[in-house]
Write the structure tokens for this entry.
Amino acid sequence: MSTTTTSLPARAEALPPPTERYTVLGWLHKNLFSTWYNALLTVIFGVVVILLLRSALEWALTQARWEVITANLRLFMVGQYPAAATWRAWACVVLLALLIGLSWGIWGRNQRAGAITFGALPFLLAILAHGEARVALLIVGVAGAIGFALSRWRSAQLQRITILGWVIYFPLVILLISGLGSADGPLSLVTTNLWGGLLLTLLLTVVGIVFSFPLGVLLALGRQSSLPIVRALCVIYIEVIRGVPLITVLFMAQLMLPLFLPGVTIDRVVRAMAGIVLFSAAYLAENVRGGLQAIPRGQYEAARALGLNTWKMMLLIILPQALKAVIPILVGQFIALFKDTSLVVIVGLLDLMGIAKAVLAQPDFLGLQAEVYLFVALVYGVFCYLMSAFSQRLEARLNAAR
Amino acid sequence: MANVPLPPPDSPPRMSRVFWRDDRFIQLAAQLIVLSIVAGLAIILVQNMAASLQRQGIALGFGFLDNAAGFDIGESLIRYTNSDTFARALLVGLLNTLLVSVLGIVLATILGIIVGIARLSSNWLVNRLAWLFIELMRNVPLLVLLIFIYTAFFLKLPRARQAIRLGPIYLSNRGVAMPWGEPTETWPIYLYIIIAAVGSAVLVAIGLRLWQERSGRPKPIALPALGTFAAMAVVGWLVLPQPPLTITTPQIAAFNFRGGLVLTPEFMALLIGLVIYTAAFIGEVVRAGIQSVPRGQVEAARALGLNSRRTLQLVVFPQALRVIIPPLTSQYLNLTKNSSLAVAIGYPDLFAVSGTIINQTGRAVEMIAVVMGVYLSVSLLTSLLMNWYNRRVRLVER
């Protein structure tokens, strides 16, 4: 064998593997008309799609009254949030753009095309917007670009600052939007009954993530605990919450929290937040448990052998690995949480769905359900799509690193 | 290295250890502390609740369920009037929930399998359409979908007089009207015949199965069993003096339909929303399950001379099922729990009915307990059933 290989000419002269190249017709034949039933399917679905697209486009371009969206855009975005404090919501977006720019530059290798498209988005929106929103969108775009530019200057310190930034970003958002106790001044208190629209939807999500995450981790640890009473309590909590619909938990929070805590006035938004946190924690606990179960026994034994006590073992050895293993699943859970916040409309909150209902009750815009709900679906869709695209990238990256 | 003094050898464990250093004691104490904190919190909360209820002049108890409900329910599977009790109203709600859940699960499974297979199709157009459908459904909240279908489609349909006709089916803002069988006097007898037919079909299937195992040769099983059932059903229909069902077609009356089966827009919107939303998730489950079967299995089956139908039936499908069943179970549970969104579009399911009862009586605590208990039992029953099925199809490892 070895003689034949040495007698052959250099390997570089070997022909390249045949590449699949199709003409247009070849592609059509392979992908659409390979067999008689595929051809039939193609024709049937092709006709249906063309007919549907034609009537949908005709409706969207000629009959739909999109002014219901443009006239109420502010309501859809922030609800009744006071105009004097709108800059705070924008500040949150600017900070987010900065963080995304930084993170993209640091971790998003070889994705310059995506970065440019994404980065151009605020500027494109700025062309469509006018007045205050245009200026704000320009600032958002510039913030993103600054973050991206800063990240070129690769340093470990910058990376640490960015991670820290993400960790404090969410509590900071809650603080910024709700404000502080004083009645006037730049950071005056904005009561939660003024929160609304997309702002409320996002805040419910953020609060849900920030508070249910530690609770979920604790519950998962409790379920894995060797102490039977602790384990039983956690199992009961998790299984009961997972066995009932979110809407019953929300209702319970609305109706029973005031009964449980008399004398304390808890407003409706906070009650809804409590319901969402309690609900989401049970699901997160199950996801984290999956990660905990994926950790080999040897890791526990090695941590013990190093003389770590239970808490140090969990915090330093087990949880970091377990959480990393389930990051994509956690992102999926957060997407579900984001979608689930729409249920607060049933307990009478004015989130994106609630605003949609309120807008449809305006005498000028009666009967425009299709336009309004398509717009709402589009907003949810864009956010969910971005989050899941991010999660897929992350999953690929984590798998590659393994 | 050598001059590092060795630590003194451990002293042998003393028999009389201080008891608070003992692991068993620490564990017991920790559990007792946790338990007392949880119990203490629960006691405080319950006491608070009792005090607040007393201040509002409400006593806890389920006695009120026997009182007359006094409200009407839009649709019901059993006879119900507003003078019936709250308990019966709840039963109506529960039956409505079960109806939409069971129908939804069956239809979503069928559509989901189609979507999952379409997602694996070699036809580019079919494949992309299935992908688009899945992405659309997964990125929009179910509530938005339901309200969109209800308000932007069903309520926008023309009035009953100008109903859209699709063959024998009418579409209008009063819902979907279709021909339906009206039971006649002989219907109860026919029901027994149907039960007997099912029984004989099962017996035939078991007999053929035993024969197949005895002889070691494949025998047709499904066809003879179905044939037995169909033959008995048809003969029964013809033998009875009067046909057990008369078909009535819907007629347009003043504002509504008369005759036939009329499905309300609320029911249809809820069912369609639940089915297409869940089907997208089931489609992904099915796709993942089929893709989890290694190619070698298919090639091995072909090498053994099985044709493509037998390959699917005997090799791919049983193995895919093992991967599919657990996530499919959670989709079924999700669909059942999601049916509580009916309250948003006015379909009287269990949750909507209990909401009405809370508004009428102020008995929030009891009603929430009842509703949560019912959903919990339904969830537990479904997962027990599916776990039992899962054990049957699971890989038996040697």
Remarks:
- Residues 1-7 of chain A have pLDDT under 50 and may be disordered.
